[in-house]
Design goal:
Helix content is 47%, strand content 15%. By secondary structure, it is of the alpha/beta class. The chain has three domains: 7-154, Rossmann fold; 173-270 and 295-316, no CATH class; 326-397, RNA polymerase sigma factor, region 2, helix turn helix motif (Rna Polymerase Sigma Factor, Chain: A, Orthogonal Bundle), CATH 1.10.1740.10. Strands 4-3-2-1-5-6-7 form a seven-stranded parallel sheet, with helices on both faces. The chain has a four-stranded mixed sheet with strand order 9-8-10-11, covered by helices on one side. Strand 10 (254-260) and strand 11 (265-269) form a beta hairpin. Helix 2 packs parallel to helix 3 (67-76), helix 6 runs parallel beside helix 11 and helix 15 runs antiparallel to helix 16. The structure holds nicotinamide-adenine-dinucleotide (NAD) and magnesium ion (MG). Magnesium ion is lined by residues 155-157, 229.
Length: 397
């Protein structure tokens, strides 16, 4: 698809790590695109400041209690930006004429409704919110197919695979032997289970290579992030788990690889900066400036690869098993993980409690339909309840 028209971009999760990187890239291309909708969860001051800088038509705050603060803040700044509040307003704007492109960068299951709305409306969807594919991958992909929605993955690994797959005839589905997702290994790579028992939230969010929001940083430290990404790759590229591998690559310069049936392996390399993925998505099929410099191969010198430690980091296999079980299991895994990560960040459980709580929820919430959003949201709710009660039984008694 050539961009023969100016792009109006909705940035959902605008105040976050991905959202601010997306706005940085958008602002570099005033002839090609602008931010027309900005949405955030709760931080009105940060949202108003972004509106001052980017002058969108619409600003939405998810927390309805913040509506008056947003409206008054926009007025005080002398902006014509229209204020909105609530989850439904985010989904409605994502599907509306206010945008052609949606950057889905809300964190967690909270991003599902707007991801699905953008897919159903046939928007160009730049998908960072991996949790929506983990929860409802079949429904999101089916909605996108029906509406002719083009999904460009923003997660760096999937963005790398997206680029590598464009090297073959897209109709030759049989040409791919496997997809290899790289993982940095996180801040605790090489640590023993005994060492992991005492890690603090501050250690877990200090990622060695990437600067990211707190939830995904903890997921990277536990390797749950890689597990979620296996499920994400399965849906995005319609490939079974048996054709997906995970390899630890501590330098985080090779963002992922595709192996073809002829023995070729293609990789995408670059500095660990999400603006590259975002520029690929915003510009595709053109290449546009992202503000990221090239990789100095001689300065970096080497690329190392090793197998993940699946016993010290059980979240990876928990995710893999949930994907193989299918149905509601990935939604249960995701919801329980969100509750467990919040409890870990709040100091209520230890790091090893994260896989324990997720495993417990997967055992407790096993049945249920998975063929509608309502059914998946019900599974999400039951998993959150199971995870919360596991947390209070296991750790507060
Ligand atoms: P973040 O915590 O920095 O930002 C989250 C954003 O979501 C904020 O703007 C926040 O206001 C908004 N938000 C939170 N709850 C909300 C709600 N209920 N309704 C509406 N908005 C809400 O997170 P992040 O690191 O930018 O990650 C965003 C998404 O991108 C996640 O799904 C993450 O897995 C994915 N991702 C991030 C990176 C990265 O480098 N940060 C890389 C790959 C994928
Ligand atoms: Mg990633």
């Amino acid at each position: 698809m050539q961009h023969d028209h100016f792009q109006q971009v909705a940035v959902l999760g605008a105040t976050g790590s991905i959202g601010t990187s997306a706005l940085d890239v958008i602002a570099r291309h005033p002839q090609l695109m602008r931010a027309s909708v900005l949405a955030a969860g709760n931080n009105v001051d940060a949202l108003v400041a972004l509106c001052v800088a980017h002058r969108p038509d619409h600003a939405v705050i998810a927390n309805p209690a913040q509506y008056a603060n947003l409206r008054d803040g926009l007025a005080a700044a002398g902006l014509a930006t229209q204020a909105h509040a609530g989850d439904a307003a985010i989904a409605e704007l994502a599907a509306s004429d206010a945008c052609d492109t949606v950057v889905a960068a809300i964190v967690g299951a909270a991003g599902l409704a707007s991801t699905l709305a953008a897919a159903t409306a046939g928007k160009r969807l730049l998908l960072a919110n991996k949790e929506s594919l983990v929860m409802a991958g079949d429904l999101v992909m089916a909605a996108a197919r029906r509406a002719g929605c083009e999904i460009i993955p923003i997660d760096s690994e999937h963005n790398a695979i997206f680029q590598c797959l464009r090297s073959r005839d897209a109709s030759a589905a049989a040409g791919v032997r496997k997809i290899i997702l790289t993982a940095s290994g996180g801040p605790f790579r090489g640590w023993s289970p005994a060492q992991l028992a005492d890690v603090t939230p501050a250690q877990a969010v200090a990622h060695p290579k990437w600067s990211m929001g707190p939830k995904i940083s903890v997921d990277s430290a536990s390797l749950m992030n890689k597990g979620l990404e296996v499920i994400e790759a399965h849906h995005l590229f319609d490939i079974p788990g048996s054709q997906i591998d995970v390899v630890v690559h501590p330098q985080s310069l090779v963002h992922s690889l595709v192996e073809f049936v002829d023995g070729s392996m293609l990789a995408q390399l670059g500095l660990p900066d999400m603006r590259t993925s975002l520029a690929v998505g915003l510009g595709w099929p053109q290449r546009i400036e992202s503000g990221v410099s090239g990789l100095d191969l001689i300065q970096h010198g080497r690329l190392d690869f090793e197998a993940p430690d699946r016993s010290a980091f059980p979240c990876l296999d928990l995710a893999w098993r949930a994907m193989e079980r299918g149905g509601i299991a990935p939604a249960v895994l995701n919801a329980a993980n969100e509750v467990a990560v919040a409890a870990f960040l709040g100091g209520n459980i230890g790091f090893a409690g994260i896989p324990a709580v997720v495993e417990n929820a997967l055992a407790a919430v096993s049945d249920g339909q998975s063929d509608s959003i309502e059914a998946l949201l019900d599974a999400d709710l039951r998993a959150r309840q199971a995870a919360s009660s596991a947390i209070s039984c296991l750790y507060n008694d």
